[in-house]
Design goal:
By secondary structure, the chain is mostly helical. It contains 7 helices and no strands. It is rod-shaped and about 105 Å long.
Length: about 200
């Protein structure tokens, strides 16, 4: 598949547009990743809270087990420590939930920052580039199969901007009706140029 025009000026514009688009895409992805990483850093509070809750729970659980072994009074003393250990578990769970929330916000924000500009870039750059490549490939195949300048001239009359047609002749439709081979070929070249194909591709 031919990705670039045969005409130097058009090819240069396409290459510059491709480079700019790639740079923009890399910048957008980098910025999105950086923002997501910055938001994830806020999860450090949740990790600290979880660790503190687990340490508190572990310490009180150990103390409760130790005190619970005291004959006669052990079970009575252990109760408050068990309740306090449960509070530590709640603190640890709160830390885990905070981390999950921060991760959700980081991931969502990162994707939004990346997808919106990339979707716009797809519309203004990628889709036209793909359409150009497909149109050029198809037209080259049609010419190789025997399409003539006359058919291309008709296609140009139906699709090309008027300013390109009047550059060939003030009344471009009359050129095709008159069957002037030179002017018909010039009309055909209008369509070829739009597809990035040199006029020499025509027999």
């Amino acid at each position: 598949m031919v990705l670039y025009s045969d005409y130097p000026a058009a090819r240069t514009r396409q290459i510059i547009a491709d480079v700019v688009a790639i740079v923009v895409a890399v910048l957008v992805i980098t910025i999105a990743a950086s923002v997501a990483a910055a938001i994830r850093a806020l999860g450090g509070f949740g990790r600290d809270l979880e660790a503190a809750g687990l340490d508190f729970q572990s310490g009180l659980t150990d103390a409760a087990e130790s005190l619970g072994g005291i004959p006669l009074i052990g079970e009575g003393i252990r109760g408050p420590f068990d309740l306090a250990a449960d509070a530590g578990a709640s603190v640890a769970e709160a830390g885990r939930q905070q981390q999950a929330f921060v991760e959700l916000v980081a991931t969502t924000t990162g994707w939004l920052i990346a997808l919106l500009p990339l979707a716009l870039l797809t519309l203004v750059w990628l889709v036209p580039r793909i359409r150009f490549a497909v149109r050029s490939r198809r037209l080259r195949g049609m010419i190789a199969a025997g399409m003539t300048a006359d058919t291309l001239a008709v296609r140009a009359l139906s699709r090309a901007p008027l300013r390109e047609l009047v550059a060939v002749h003030p009344d471009p439709a009359s050129v095709w009706r008159s069957n002037d081979p030179v002017l018909v070929r010039r009309l055909a070249e209008v369509e070829l140029r739009r597809a990035g194909i040199r006029a020499s591709a025509l027999p």
